[in-house]
């Protein structure tokens, strides 16, 4: 997730260079405005089938704009599966679903090689791709899969390819994993390892809708006709939007806010007394990279040409909550990770 920081305040003494820079900025502004209109239409399309989860929808859209993966955590019945299906329709992505169970094998996700014999009697192996060869993979209840199967996703999520029988196979572009997890029932589940959690751009907590949204959902989903999302963007337009996100300028104050927030969450570098006492391990460099991309995407979704420190504060929880862990003593005392993240955000407010 390599990124280039673009300063919002660049100066030059060459008139021709200044004119070229102004034209480049003008084109960038036009592209941002056009993308903002498309994203507004995408949000409206998803809103036709997902009620009362605007923050969840926005964070999932941010994940796709950044080219990343998301972990959606919520109790059953909160439309997590339907959200993934709707996003596949809105962006024109080839979407597949894998229901994770303890007996699911890596080959059930990646694919396998079979031995075939030709008419001439020659034998050769042929690779049969698994469901991971899609543009939008939903791993439902990912924590029910065994550690061996979970690890099969590590290379795919980071390198956009898989290795089967010593042969590498590239995945389609774009490639996104949206995994779901049930926080209630823990029997027969396997906690995700830290290395895999770190590969998720955001951890999105899905809560219950408010009463007005639930009333709207009751009327819309129990009638004779069920509303569906509509295609708004093409796959090519999504990939162009992902490139545009990386071109959005970021001011020095936002860069410093990101660095301060992430480094204050590490026991080794934090000046906040609670952190060394309560944190077992803190966020790594991927947290800074994820924040840099996510604040740019959030600014684009709101029609702004550059992110602000407020974007950093809004995305601190979904970026950090799966990249930090409390000590056993802190958990025993009833400390909460969200409260600690709030403490990390206080100096930036």
Automatic annotation (TrEMBL):
<feature type="compositionally biased region" description="Polar residues">
    <location>
        <begin position="7"/>
        <end position="22"/>
    </location>
</feature>
<dbReference type="Pfam" id="PF07726">
    <property type="entry name" value="AAA_3"/>
</dbReference>
<feature type="domain" description="ATPase AAA-3">
    <location>
        <begin position="69"/>
        <end position="202"/>
    </location>
</feature>
<feature type="region of interest" description="Disordered">
    <location>
        <begin position="1"/>
        <end position="23"/>
    </location>
</feature>
<dbReference type="InterPro" id="IPR027417">
    <property type="entry name" value="P-loop_NTPase"/>
</dbReference>
<dbReference type="InterPro" id="IPR011703">
    <property type="entry name" value="ATPase_AAA-3"/>
</dbReference>
<protein>
    <submittedName>
        <fullName>AAA family ATPase</fullName>
    </submittedName>
</protein>
<feature type="domain" description="ChlI/MoxR AAA lid">
    <location>
        <begin position="277"/>
        <end position="340"/>
    </location>
</feature>
<dbReference type="Pfam" id="PF17863">
    <property type="entry name" value="AAA_lid_2"/>
</dbReference>
<dbReference type="InterPro" id="IPR050764">
    <property type="entry name" value="CbbQ/NirQ/NorQ/GpvN"/>
</dbReference>
<dbReference type="InterPro" id="IPR041628">
    <property type="entry name" value="ChlI/MoxR_AAA_lid"/>
</dbReference>
């Amino acid at each position: 997730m390599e990124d280039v920081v673009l300063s919002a305040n660049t100066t030059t003494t060459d008139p021709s260079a200044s004119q070229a820079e102004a034209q480049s900025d003008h084109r960038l502004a036009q592209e941002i405005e056009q993308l903002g209109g498309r994203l507004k239409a995408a949000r409206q399309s998803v809103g036709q089938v997902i009620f009362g989860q605007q923050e969840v929808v926005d964070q999932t859209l941010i994940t796709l704009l950044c080219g990343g993966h998301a972990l959606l955590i919520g109790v059953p019945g909160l439309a997590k599966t339907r959200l993934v299906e709707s996003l596949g329709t809105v962006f024109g992505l080839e979407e597949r679903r894998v229901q994770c169970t303890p007996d699911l094998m890596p080959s059930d996700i990646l694919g396998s090689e079979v031995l075939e014999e030709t008419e001439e009697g020659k034998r050769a192996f042929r690779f049969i791709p698994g469901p991971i060869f899609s543009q939008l993979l939903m791993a439902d209840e990912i924590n029910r899969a065994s550690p061996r199967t979970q690890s099969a996703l590590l290379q795919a999520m980071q390198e956009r390819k898989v290795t089967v029988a010593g042969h590498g196979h590239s995945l389609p572009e774009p490639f996104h994993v949206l995994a779901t997890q049930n926080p209630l029932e823990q029997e027969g589940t396997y906690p995700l390892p830290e290395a895999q959690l770190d590969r998720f751009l955001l951890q999105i907590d899905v809560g219950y809708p408010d009463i007005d949204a639930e009333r709207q959902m009751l009327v819309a989903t129990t009638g004779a006709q069920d509303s569906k999302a509509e295609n708004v963007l093409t796959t090519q337009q999504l990939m162009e939007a992902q490139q545009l996100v990386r071109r959005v300028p970021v001011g020095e104050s936002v860069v410093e806010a990101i660095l301060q927030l992430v480094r204050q969450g590490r026991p080794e570098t934090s000046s906040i007394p609670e952190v060394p006492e309560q944190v077992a391990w803190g966020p790594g460099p991927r947290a800074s990279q994820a924040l840099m991309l996510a604040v740019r995407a959030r600014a684009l979704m709101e029609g702004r040409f550059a992110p602000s420190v407020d974007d950093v504060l809004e995305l601190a929880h979904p970026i950090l909550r799966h990249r930090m862990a409390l000590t056993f003593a802190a958990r025993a005392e009833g400390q909460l990770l969200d409260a600690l993240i709030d403490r990390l955000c206080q100096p930036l407010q």
